[in-house]
Design a protein that fits this description.
9 helices, disordered N terminus
């Protein structure tokens, strides 16, 4: 039986643990976490990748310790939260500018902002917006940064929707497919999530490698 949109929350919820969040808040929790992680700077620490993958596993009934979730509901909640969050972050950046980051004392957040700025400068708006979806913290700060840098709204919206759908749907379906095909896969949940996070960084690694090769070729031709 699929879990209702909002499950009864326990007394204590571990915000860093995907199963704890899903057990407490169900599908509605997915939408809220996606929105906070991609739209609000305070959500940079939330477990976006592992939450999506674990939700996919639970949709397949792969874990006896978590709730049973509906795959269509999870896909809809994940996409809606991620797309709305990114657009909200962009609008906040347009209005508040870089002052939001200046007020934060989080070293991790500032490092993410530097990487987001490098992505925008090195790869252009389209690639940077899509690639940022797959990098924790960077996907949080790039959206308001894009707004502060006045990236055209039409360009930002188009590519954040494309990147957001690939990221959310891809990770949920990866979890669902694995949970459907491998018995007791939840026993290996932590190493699997680590692999998923590493794989999610591959697009960025490939782009970095290409840019370094291109730079080396330019230097060699001088």
């Amino acid at each position: 039986m699929a879990l209702p949109l909002l499950a009864a929350a326990p007394l204590a919820v571990n915000l860093l643990d995907a199963q704890s969040l899903l057990s407490a808040f169900g599908v509605l929790g997915i939408a809220v976490v996606m929105f906070a992680e991609t739209g609000l700077l305070i959500g940079f620490f939330l477990p976006g990748d592992s939450l999506l993958f674990t939700a996919g596993l639970l949709c397949a009934g792969a874990s006896g310790q978590g709730p049973s979730l509906s795959l269509p509901a999870v896909l809809a909640a994940a996409a809606a939260g991620a797309l709305a969050g990114a657009q909200c972050g962009y609008l906040i950046g347009r209005r508040a500018g870089a002052s939001l980051l200046d007020r934060s004392r989080s070293r991790r957040l500032h490092e993410g902002a530097e990487r987001a700025g490098e992505l925008l400068e090195r790869y252009g708006h389209a690639k940077a917006i899509v690639l940022a979806r797959f990098v924790p913290v960077v996907r949080t700060v790039l959206n308001p940064l894009a707004g502060a840098l006045e990236v055209p709204a039409r360009v930002f919206t188009l590519w954040q929707v494309a990147g957001g759908l690939v990221w959310t749907v891809g990770l949920v379906l990866a979890g669902y497919g694995l949970g459907s095909s491998i018995p007791n896969v939840d026993r290996y949940l932590l190493p699997i999530i680590a692999v998923i996070v590493a794989v999610s960084l591959l697009p960025l690694a490939v782009e970095l490698l290409r840019s370094r090769r291109a730079a080396a070729q330019r230097d060699g031709s001088l």
